[in-house]
Structure formats: structure tokens, C-alpha cells
Amino acid sequence: MSKTITRDFISDNFIFTDIQDDTKKTYNKQSLIEKINYWKYILKYQYNAVSTESILIGLQVVNIDYFAIIIAAAELSLKIVVVDYNRTDKFEDVEYTDPKTKALAPIDIFLHDFTDAALKSNRGYAKFVFFKKMSNRTYSTQDSFNFQINSVLYEELSTLRPDPSDILFRVTSSGTTDTPKVIEHSHEFIFEISQRNSKNYSGIALHVSNLNHGASASVTLLPLLTSNHVTRHLFYDSGNVESIDGLIRHLESYKDELGYLSFPYPFLIDKFIEISREKNIQWPKLDLITLSYILPSAKFAVRDGIFKSITSIFGSNETLGPLFINRSDQSIWDIDPKHFTKPDDFYEIELSEEGKITVTIPVYDKKIVTNDYFERQGEIFIHRGRSDMFRINGETLNLKLINDYNSMNTNTYLVVDTVNHCLYLACWQELCLEKINQIKQEVEDKFERIKITKIDRLDKSNFYYGIKIDNELLREYFRTYNV
Question: What homologous superfamily does CATH list for 389-480?
Fold first, then answer.
């Protein structure tokens, strides 16, 4: 098999069921291949896609066509742009901006599934306008189903495949302290890491979100598709708290075989646990995957048998991963969430004297120096946070100080703006003026020339990118609005 992401990469055992569909319609690999051929033709001859062009697959709904479009785009050697397209906010602000998408622009093809009625009713309209502005060409999947097919071209196109060195994903760095940077990953690298990660999954896999960032694509989505031990793929759209009750209701009949689930946002894990407890439902084979620290509520759920285990994955878009894992299961449920281990030798990892990690990435054979610090104790790697040094108003600031503040204070969040040389403070709940002034004073007392210039009460769920607060999106908000 060529080391590329194509139909041959997908397990022959592939079975897909949309549990939100009352008919519970099921598709096998042959059904998926037929869809891949169809969308490959549409991409090439209706959307005029050319090899090496970039494409944002911005679909609201994850269904069999969504999987097919991903593979069709990969087989055409298109570069799939990975952004957090299905974010938690309602996209009602016509001034909406996404700094990570701006870094990836101009995108050649923006593919969406909004209906004309949805756009006319303004549902998602601001979001649509932004992504259209960031793209050279925009198409709706709703317009593709009556396109004339040439049978000769259709057959010729079905055999076209990419080269291992072709770029598959375009993603961005985190943008923690500065403008996000574009990162590209090849077919061969994504193939190797997907094969490696596929060994971690078995049983029924539930998909609740789209390709919302690079790490989830290679750590979970593609490994699930290639794993011979995954017996069925289910889909349910649960991007918000209100949908978790419906998810559990639809999922209950699969509870004894559910093996994989990863929510896009950490607060959804708590809601899943809460409702499972209320309904007295257990998931005996389920290993929840999270890209954040394991919270006490999840550890207690493992202890009480709500599900089998929870695994925290540590990595980044630059390195993908996991570099390290932290796992709580019924044999050792009360683990320290900062204590990680290496799952294998896929990556070569070095620690400097001060604990900064350097990762040698296979296939590329290049070293990435991260700003994460660890302390090694035998086989345990203890995460000590990040350290980024930069200057504001001529004064040196260590980002660790800001990160430590944000870790200790769940009701507020500091973000650094190196362009405007200041700090901003987001309040996740209503605070009295006296309390706000107290917080401002306590922070500013740590510096000589660094000030908090803007403070606002915000909805935390609107500023997640995957499982983390999106610092660049938060910065963009404060820069844009005169709060």
C-alpha cells in the first residue's frame, strides 16, 4: 500500500451509521467508495479543483458525504485546510473574524452545506460571509446533486492517486503569544502517524465533531477510519451542552460496545458524566479521549464505573501526537493529571537541562523545539507548563506567569497583546467593579510598565478552539471592540 491517505487506507471493515437519522441508515466501505468517486468528480469538474489547491471542507453536518469528501480531496492532492469551523458561538456578528483562518488565506475552495433558505434567514450568515471572504471560490454541496456526469471521465478519475510527499493538511500553530503560523503535513507523515495511533482504538467509535483541528484529524479521525478493530462508526451532532441528553438517548442501545468518544470541548465531558449518572447508564468498554488535563469529575467517573477509562493526549499541531499520554482507568484511577508517559518510541524526545522538550519528527527527520517544560522522574514526565519570554513596553514578561494566573483563576482569563503592548482581562462571570479593580491592581502590581487596558464580561464557550481557549481569537475581540 502506498503511504497515502486514499480509499485503500480505509479499513475493509468500515461500517457507518447516522444515529440521528430515524432510519438508522448504514453504509459499508463499498458505499463509501461510491461516494468518494462521486465527490472526486464533483470536486474536479464542477468545482474545478486542481492538484495542490487548498480546500476548506466547511460542512455543518458530519455524514457519509463528509468522510467521502475528505478522501476525495486527498486523492486529488488537494491541501485540506483545518480550522475550528464548527465553533460553539452562533456566528451572528457580521464583524466575526478567525485569526487562524486569516493566516491560512487565501483558501482556494470553500465548500459549505448551507441551504439558500438558511442564508436568507441569516442563520450562520456572518460565518459564511467571513469564510467566503477568505476564499477564492465558494461552492455549496446543495448545488452538486444534479450535475451532469461523463462516464468516461468518471472512470478515469477514480484511479487518480496522490504521491506520499504531497501535502495533505494545512494547519496553524496555537497563536498563544503571536500571530498563528501555517504548518503543512504530508500524506506520508499523516499515514505513518495514523497507522501508529490506530492501534489505540477498538469497538464502536462515536464521531461528534468534524475535522476541527490538525491534532484530532491524525490522532483520532483518520486512525479510526483505518483501524481493523473499530467495528462501527456512529455519528451524532453534539457540539453543545443542550444536545448531550439527546446523544445519550440515541446512544444507549450501543452502550455495551462503545469504545471511543472524544468531545471537542472539555465542558461537554462533564455534561456527559452528569447525565450518565442521572440515567444510571454505564459504558463498560468506553475510553474517553481528551486533549486537556483529566479533571477530577472524570477520574471519579472512572472509579465509579461510568466508563472504562479516560486518556489525556499531549501534542501540538506542529508535532501532532500523542507525544505523551496520561491515562486513568479502574486499576489506577486517581492519577496526577500532570504526570505523563511515552506511549512508544515513535518520536525521539530530548529534555534540556531546564526541561524544555525537543521532538525529532519521523518521516520529516527534523527537530521541533517546543515551549513546554517537563521534569523527568524515571518513566514519568511531569508537565511544568510553558515558558515564552517576550517584551512589552520594554519590560520582559514570562508567559508562564500569565498561564499560572489563568490556571488558578477559573472565572477570569488574561491574554497578552504584544502588538498593542498590553494585557486584556476576560471575565467569564459577572463581577462587581470593586472585585474587577482588585484583580487589575493585583496583576499590574507584578510589573512596572505592563497594564491591563481592556476588561469585558464574555461567554467562555465562544472562545474555545478545540479544547483550549483561543488566545488569538480573544485578542482579536479586544482589538476590534472598544470595551
Answer: ANL, C-terminal domain (3.30.300.30)
